[in-house]
Automatic annotation (TrEMBL):
GO terms for biological process: actin filament bundle assembly; cell migration; establishment or maintenance of cell polarity; polysaccharide catabolic process. This is Glucan 1,3-beta-glucosidase. Gene3D superfamilies: 2.80.10.50, Glycosidases (3.20.20.80). It comes from Quillaja saponaria (Soap bark tree). It comes from the Eukaryota. Coiled coil: none annotated. Belongs to the glycosyl hydrolase 5 (cellulase A) family. Residues 55-194 form the DUF7910 domain. Residues 1-21 form the signal peptide. Pfam families: Cellulase, DUF7910. One of its GO terms (molecular function) is actin filament binding. GO terms for cellular component: actin cytoskeleton; cytoplasm. Residues 218-484 form the Glycoside hydrolase family domain. Keywords: Glycosidase, Hydrolase, Signal.
Amino acid sequence: MTVKDLLLALYLCSVFSVSVGQNETPKLPLKAVNLGNWLVTEGWMKPSLFSDIPNNDLLDGTQVHFFSSKLQKFLCPENGGGTVVVANRASASGWETFRLWRINESTFNFRVFKKQFVGLENQGGGTRVVAVSSAPSDPETFQIMRNDGEKNKVRIRASNGLFLQAKSETLQVTADYEGQGWEDDNPSVFNMTILADKLQGEYQITNGYGPERAPQVMQEHWNTYITEQDFLFMSSNGLNAVRIPVGWWIAHDPNPPKPFVGGSLAALDKAFIWAQKYGLTVIIDLHAIQASQNGNVHSGTRDGYQEWGDSNIKDTVAVIDFLARRSANKPSLAAIELMNEPLAPGVNLESLKKYYQVGYDAVRKYTSSAYVIMSNRLNTSNATELLSFAGKGFDRVVIDVHYYNLFSDMFKNMNVQQNIDHVNNQRAAELSSVTSSNGPLSFVGEWTAEWEAKDATKQDYQRFAQAEINVYGRATFGWAYWAYKCEQHHWSLKWMIENNFIKLN
Ligand SMILES: *[C@@H]1O[C@H](CO)[C@@H](O)[C@H](O)[C@H]1NC(C)=O
Ligand SMILES: *[C@@H]1O[C@H](CO)[C@@H](O)[C@H](O)[C@H]1NC(C)=O
Ligand SMILES: *[C@@H]1O[C@H](CO)[C@@H](O)[C@H](O)[C@H]1NC(C)=O
Ligand SMILES: *[C@@H]1O[C@H](CO)[C@@H](O)[C@H](O)[C@H]1NC(C)=O
């Protein structure tokens, strides 16, 4: 063997060691940005993505009230579900609220407060309307017919071809109206109020466009929203990592369960190539989890109910296993985050720990060097509830906390200085409580310079962002801004850098 051969052999050896799951050790702490609204849609970040959906105010999870124009009363499943549907409520809140499951632009199931579906009794053999079925089929399927002039005036046709009617406050609602017309005393005419808090996520966009159009719309979005140019921008502006939210359906690419569409896996692969080219590392973040870990739009939920629990652990770990197996060999893999923002108390701590244990084991089957990130529960009152668990029996583990001066009444009336003080004091203390010297690392996996301070000037934003960068820079694993791109400018790190609100270099 010549010296040259020996060098070649050593070189191949080092290349080979990379290919069996040794990632380059990332330079900590990371300065990262979230590629939000790329592989997991969040409508508020780019509302126009939804504009070509027919009847796009009636997407999955949209909550509606039906007000009988004859009786001047709201429809209500008695007890919030499990029995008959009546029309005798003077005002509407939880029980009177119906969540849509969209079949197509005019056909829906209605899910009630206690999660049953409205339908015809006797598996469709009767005309009385009940809310008892736990799985929708034909008898639970209704067509909403909108009045041409007044779109919120509706009539509702049941699977027997007849219309729902509210004859009297003392009688059950029935599906036996055969007439026509839109007059106010017509018992089949309802005023449909759409509640403001609507969902615009991956389920809504893919099901809204439907199986013909959704694959094109999503592919176009993935191709254009984040490109190689963006990785160049990030690396030349002081960032060294990206956190990429993905949805559980990515593990079923190219043929995920409907309505999700294939292609996000190829986009993730491209991100790894660009990351490597521009010297960034990648955090894969399992952001949208089957059955929903928080009911929020970014969990991929259909209707906003948070239903993740012990029975979902197996499927969720399979997604982690898939992601780890496919990415362990990629040199720029920095970490895999097992679950974004589980919400207390729906996700209980014991289930979460059980899942984190098996999720960690799944990652370690393929890589010993990638970090494994365990997210704190979103609204836990005990920021250190994972600390002792994560500190025992794990290697290269990180705890993720998210800091927004938003989403709580506490921030509604804070002025500029109070917001900055809150970061310097409360946030700094909380971060320090989850940052241990020999335990798991800490990570502020989401934060933003948007806030509720009124009439804030550019200089105010600059001071606030700088305070955040100073404090979150103490996290031992690093931080990630939410997000890279967003139509609301202060949420877009790209815009904030381009407009000199934030300077990282
Ligand atoms: C919607 O679905 C229903 C039930 O499957 C079907 O009868 C109807 O023709 C569909 N409408 C459209 C516009 O596709
Ligand atoms: C329908 O409901 C909307 C919103 O609650 C209300 O503004 C409107 O006046 C109602 N229309 C009728 C005809 O009751
Ligand atoms: C967390 O949020 C849920 C849902 O909004 C709520 O029911 C629960 O009380 C909150 N828990 C804490 C500790 O704030
Ligand atoms: C927070 O949770 C940890 C782990 O369960 C526990 O040891 C600690 O006492 C809790 N702290 C508070 C303030 O409840």
